Amino acid sequence: MVAIDPTLLNVLLIAISGTLICAAVHFIPVGGAPAAMAQATGIGTGTVELAAGSGLVGLITASYMYASEPTAQVYLVMAAGAMGSMVMLASTMLAGGLIYAYGVAVPFASAQVKKDPITGQRQDTFVSKGTQGQGIPTVCFVSGVIGAALGGIGGALIYYVLVGIYSPLITTSAAAVAGVFTMGVFYVNSVIPSYGVGGTIEGFHDPKFRRVIGKDVLTSFVISLLCGVVAVMIAGGMVA
């Protein structure tokens, strides 16, 4: 079995984590300004806010898990990150759904698919004329929760790797430095999809999902790889 250099492994893990964060954004129903006016499905804000918001909550839960149990296995830290992100985004979508239903009085319907892939219910007859749909249909909600889980896992893994790198060098500040760097990777990888998505996306059922995710993920991997190299170089500077 070929042994992998620990430094190279850390760089690759950070690259994979960043790619997961980028991929996660495509699952989240981003509605932007049109959704805020109930003219499109999804949450009425952009990719950066949704990805960073859900991811940072996952980062908090992951860091709490690591702080309370430093010997915890990486999969437990990742699970904690996923759970935090999922709860945060599910709560956001639930609150948004309540506003759509009881505040704006619109039915939840997608214009991208005739039937909801999850419930099988017909949607095209409920789409308001001149809109791309409205509300947060079941498939959008499920897709958003999946995206939140991926983003939480990606953020938790970056944090776990960076704490492992920095702890021997700056024991008291390792968690803070790892957290700030992870936030930076989150923002970088939540901006990349904004160019591919180009406004709104409903989730994995949206035709735009298959069209843009490949290019965005490849771009994210390259950028995240550079972030991994920078993280290792920072550690090298601490040693020097």
Q: How would the blueprint of this fold be written?
A:
Layout: H1 6-27, H2 32-36, H3 47-68, H4 74-104, E1 109-110, E2 133-134, H5 138-166, H6 174-197, H7 207-239
Antiparallel strand pairs: 1-2
Helix pairs in contact: 1-3, 1-5, 1-6, 1-7, 3-4, 3-5, 3-6, 4-5, 5-6, 6-7
Index terms:
single chain; 7 helices; mainly alpha; 240 residues
Overview of the structural elements:
The protein has seven helices and two strands, in the order H-H-H-H-E-E-H-H-H. The protein is mainly alpha-helical. The radius of gyration is 19 Å and the shape is elongated. The protein has one domain. It has a two-stranded antiparallel sheet with strand order 1-2. The longest helix is centred in the last third of the chain and has 33 residues, at 207-239.
Which series of helices and strands comes N to C? HHHHEEHHH
- Arithmetic mean pLDDT: 86
Q: Indicate the structural class.
A: mainly alpha
Distance between the first and last residues' Cα: 33 Å
Low-confidence stretches: none
Which strand order does the major sheet show? 1-2
Percent helix range: 55-70%
Portion in strands = under 5%
Number of domains: 1
Question: Could you say which overall geometry the principal axes of the C-alpha atoms support?
Answer: elongated
Helix segment tally: 7
Whole-angstrom Rg: 19 Å
| Count of β-strands | 2
Summarize the biggest pleated sheet: 2 strands, antiparallel
